[in-house]
Amino acid sequence: MREILKSLGKRKLANILILLQIILSLMYFFITAISIQKTFQIYQEVPKKLNTDVEQIVIVEVNSEDEINLTNELFQTFCETVKKETDVEKIGTYHTSWLECQQLGLDLTAIEVDRDIDWIRQIETEEGRGFNEEDFDPAQTNGTKEHPFPLLIGHELRQQHSIQIGDKFADTNNKNYVVTGVLKKGSLWFQQSIPEGMFLTLDNQAVRPLLNPSELQMYYYFKVSDHASGSETAEKIESIAERYQIELSADAVSSRLDEQFDDDLRENMQWLCFSLILLVMIAIGLATIILARMYSRKKEIGIRMALGYTFWQICRLLVGEVLVLVLSGWILTVTGVKIMYGGGEYLGGARLYTGIFLSLKIILLGGAAALLMCMPTVIALIVKFRKLQPNNLIGGNE
Fold first, then answer.
1. Does the N-terminal or the C-terminal CB of the chain have fewer CB atoms within 10 Å?
2. DSSP of 275-291, one letter per residue?
């Protein structure tokens, strides 16, 4: 190993240029692989996080900007009609808002969930209690000191601020809250809409009830009975909406996921193919450069053979130089990508779990790509070196 490093040190500039080529090609491959990982992450993880089949959930996107014609009362009437005329069993929604409390120095994301959303995603607590029926009753819960809003806080949030079950505080809007439970460590929730597949970690966030909102939400979720088709029910929902002159779009969550998966995969596969072509080109270029270097070192090789070096010892030296360069490039690339994508994505103080991160699978896949990239060089060195005769090595230029 010391001999290999000593040999590499004699040609620092050339080796640095080769190393940069390897790093740039592997960097592009890693970034492309991470992007494809996000595509599969959304498609695979969303169904796992739901309490029901994605084919039986219809997502309804409401044009809530039409404030003149569309009121909350009209929309509730529309929902009741949908339940009567279709196979929709439940309707739920949730909302992402901000919770600011100067008293505790809190400024965080709060997930507001209505009472009919638990069939989509369970909210689990490790201490205290979750929400009950009274928590969603405006007569029992109105944000006053006598009837504060219940609040579930994240695991990390409790530790950072030493919050205890039963603690009360007010936000910047003078709404009062009482901590009723601590969320289970590692809890996740959907950031905006389910088909987007962006999960919000709740360890440093909070969850509170959504109390019969007077303001319409952008997304609603309709639970379709098991014997009915989600796609067909979505068409019926849009038809009923036309009767009420409500602008909305309805699709089965499975359809949205399939469409997004196909689009993302099609786009990313093009970049993956390009990255593989780039790796092949770098591999060929690397083999050409190393072979040219071997021929320029004929005198050195001849002297080593005269000193008793065998064919395999010299091959091991030449191949070792290539492997050290490629391995160094892989390690440096992993380090760089880890710095870029190791921390995930953040929205304010909340971490988003989107699949955009450097996973162990991608690290190992990049290592395999690096080894395959140096194989043409290794094969070419062995084949070409076998053809060199001792008399051809005398008088070579190093």
1. N
2. HHHHHHHHHHHHHHHHH
Element (H, E) at 126: strand 125-128
Tokens for 268, please give them: 């990313």
**Per-residue pLDDT for 151 more than 80?**
yes
Q: How far is CA 308 from the centre of its chain?
A: 56
- Per-residue pLDDT reduced to its tens digit, 357-392: 888 999 999 899 888 888 887 787 777 766 665 555
Distance CA 344, CA 338 (A): 10
**What's the predicted TM-score (pTM) here?**
0.78
SS (H, E, C) 184-248: CCCCEEECCCHHHCCEEECCCCEEEECCCCCCCCCEEEEEECCCCCHHHHHHHHHHHHHHCCCCE
| Alpha-carbon distances, residue 85 vs 55, 189, 233 (angstroms) | 19, 31, 10
The secondary structure of 333-376 as a DSSP string is HHHHHHHHHTT-EEETTEEEESS-S--HHHHHHHHHHHHHHHHH
Among the listed residues 222, 226, 247, 198, the one whose alpha carbon sits nearest the alpha carbon of residue 53: 226
3-state secondary structure of 107: strand
